[in-house]
Amino acid sequence: MPTMSNSSITTSGSEKTTPPASQPSSIKSVELPTRSPKLKPQNGQPVANAEGQLKAPEKTSVKDRLTRMFSNKGEIPKTTAAGDSSSAPSAAAQARVVNGAPTPRAPTLPVRKPSTTDKAPQSTASAGAPKAAAASQRYVVNASLQGGHEHHLKGSKRQEKLSDMWKTLLGRKHEQAPEADLSLVSSWVDTLKQEKDSLAGDRRGGPSATSTLIEKYGKCQEVVGRGAFGIVRISHKKVDNGEKLFAVKEFRRRPEETEKKYSKRLTAEFCISSSLRHPNVIHTLDLLKDSKGDYCEVMEFCSGGDLYTLVLAAGKLEVQEADCYFKQMMRGVEYMHEMGVAHRDLKPENLLLTSHGALKITDFGNGECFRMAWENDAHMVSGLCGSAPYIAPEEYIDREFDARAVDVWACGVIYMAMRTGRHLWRVAKRDDDEFYERYLEGRRDEEGYGPIESLHRARCRNVIYSILDPNPTRRITASQVLKSEWGREIKLCKAGEEGL
């Protein structure tokens, strides 16, 4: 059963350990071994098949229907049918071969034949509005608005939301659902039990106030998130027209961690996060010491909570609602990768929301600089870190891998969690997880993999299959996701576009 923390901002640890399948809690990585000087193109020729040796399927498989999409970076795809590079060429592909060699042609995005579950999208001006209004008004369709919709997220404290959900859960008699161990609710209950003992202490504690901290950002009060080595509180700063809120992350020193290592770890995280400026990345303002010598990182406050809590409360998100959050996330990831930074711990808990529905990536405790400003080539990275359901399969297999491909994989798992309210698997290891093994088999089968096939839209399904390609050299990039036909047709609301 995957264990997911319920903190809106978690402080990432860093020990390189492989989690057992039974307890896939967040796994962290500290000191990385030597990196190779250059990184092979992310969409180059496959160097290894992460799916293992598979027999050629007799039927036309999902893998056959998906090519190595967008093999040239920045290319905008066209919708045509094409075969997978590892399979025999299709009739269309053979028609492009001249004298045994393929003629140059721009890469294309294959499209599957519409299945019986394909449905035409509803009109945003009519059919969607009543359904959105019924969802507690958290998501409202309005054709007159930018993007055709808007989000309204309650500003209640995260712990209050979780407490209300816990009371509701206790008041119901649930029947055991098949494969219930993959549900987000199941993971949350486990995490809540583990954190129960620490709640009282967190409420009483807080950073030891200094004149600088109070003068600049006000007094720290209620807890809005917690992790293994720190908690996050709201700081209230009085201003002329009321008060301004900040999020203050209090770092705790790890057991047996020296002052030097403690300082180096926090400085590294701050240097990464404070250098990023994007509407869909959290704005980090300051790093201060309190009177006890503990570090506090000050960030903008997102009153809408985190994506994990939202999905948990909603069960699953509406199609356009999830698409908007997904595109915001991909925009933030694309920007980070362009800046030479990989997150390496993307999960719903680390995606914060404003009350208007702007999504912001946070918690760079596992952040990786895979390319310095003066470098042209990226470095491979190593070490296992992240939360088990979101960790890419190559992290378990390869000594070194592309940190960007790892982030993209996590984004695909997050989208499926938004749409289904469940994890796809506990851990992406064929021999250790029956659900992941079913996914690999589904990629080879004509019918595909059930949870992804249930998305109903062929363009969406094709992109998700390509994001969740077990072979990282075939996996598409964040930029290519945004330039895909599905990515381009997703409409962002004004808040998501501008980070409001």
UniProtKB/TrEMBL annotation:
UniProt-listed Gene3D superfamilies: Transferase(Phosphotransferase) domain 1
Biased composition (Basic and acidic residues): 56-67
GO cellular component terms attached to this protein's record: cytosol
Ranges for region Disordered: 1-133
Domain Protein kinase: 218-487
Keyword Kinase: yes
Protein family according to the UniProt entry: Belongs to the protein kinase superfamily.
Protein name: non-specific serine/threonine protein kinase
Taxonomic source organism: Neoarthrinium moseri
Organism placement in taxonomy: Eukaryota, Fungi, Dikarya, Ascomycota, Pezizomycotina
